[in-house]
Amino acid sequence: MVNTAVVLAGGKGTRLQSAFPDTAKPMVPLAGKPVLQHLVETYSAQGIERFLFTIGHLGDQIRSHFGDGASWGVQIEYFEEKEALGTAGALSQLQDVLPEQFWVLYGDTISDIDLAQMEAFHLSKRADATLFVHPNDHPYDSDLVQNDRHSRIIAVHGKPHDPSIDYPNSVNAAFYLFNKNVIAQIPADRASDFGRDLFPAWAHSLKLYAYASPEYIKDMGKPERHAQVEKALISGKVAARNLSQRQRAIFLDRDGVINLDTDLIKTPDEMQVYPFAGPAIRRINESDFLSVVVTNQSAVARGLTDLDGIDAIHARMDRQLGADGAFVDALYYCPHHPDGGFPEERPEYKIPCSCRKPSPGMLLAAADRFQIDLERSWMIGDSPRDIEAGKAAGTRTIRVRTGHGAVPGPEPDYWAENIIDAVELIFTIESASL
């Protein structure tokens, strides 16, 4: 396994200075210990044996606390930036001491990511560089990553974003696995930044891949974020989201649950998220549950749109949810439809499949990918197909009265008026069972 990590620990932490004056940003305490110590303990437990700290502002505090790393059972080395080199510049100076593959982590960030899964992804793609990406509650002021359906990154969109374009809520979370050959692509004579200067170009010149995961990662660069991260750390949420642990999910149908069902949505302009859907999904985001959309999209099979069109529709949905501070952790859709006989249909999608609800294929695929305990999870839908799929997968089911909620079908475990009532019902039931 990859057992070396470069940790960028030279930032000034300007926004945190009011709360923690004269403290190096990676040394700001969280739950009784420096944030950088949490990083070392988390990832040394997963097999990282060697850490290279790039230090600058107040770097002596870091060196004094960690020494050579022996107290943590690791080897720690230091590279002191005489002048600020940006997030990427220091790597160009470390070429002679780095192995063929290495992690790049940020010293002001709390995370708990299953390194083995991310490394396996990196190797399977034969990537030059793999970026950890995830949705967040503020995509409008984040650097967004756009990838193809094989996870290869095709563009990186820095903030601010063009308001006329819908981007998927896929955020560069500042956690990377690099092959050594990328160092030659970093300018050696000036400061540079990964997100601003390098990744947009590397998307065209290198094999750059996006590893999407709902695992916990958040920087604590602002006082309010520091409080959020500390709460998540103390509650156990940070460690529990590691994909080596069993997860719980709330599966959501799309049309009629999240958005107005106008019958076979074909364009982004037809995507109208219910005003109560954003707050409902935000409640899921704040909980211990993953939010996973599973949706039949036979418009593809019918020839009314294509896969790129479906992606564009979902980017519009992401944008509307993001305006409410909400996001879905993962989305699965089925483009198939079993019945033929229409002139504009696409025969390659007019097939029986295991993913189209009422079959449980999409739920089972998500469960396999994210270690979801289906018996402790829920399915919220508006149609009989949703309830049948949830029952077949082994989840508990709630049917909402929006969308196709009046169509006769199998009895769900519970009924609710809409998605926000369904989510509140879930949390009431879960609280009562504790």
Features:
alpha/beta; 6-stranded parallel sheet; globular; 7-stranded mixed sheet; 2 domains; Rossmann fold; 12 helices; Spore Coat Polysaccharide Biosynthesis Protein SpsA, Chain A; 19 strands; single chain; 434 residues
Short précis:
Helix content is 28%, strand content 21%.
What does this structure look like?
This protein is an alpha/beta fold. It folds into 2 domains: 4-231, Spore Coat Polysaccharide Biosynthesis Protein SpsA, Chain A; 246-433, Rossmann fold, CATH 3.40.50. The chain is built from 12 helices and 19 strands. It has a 7-stranded mixed beta sheet with strand order 5-4-1-6-11-8-12, with helices on both faces. A 6-stranded parallel beta sheet has the order 16-15-14-17-18-19, with helices on both faces. A two-stranded antiparallel sheet has the order 2-3. A hairpin with a 5-residue loop joins β9 and β10. α8 runs parallel beside α12 (419-433).
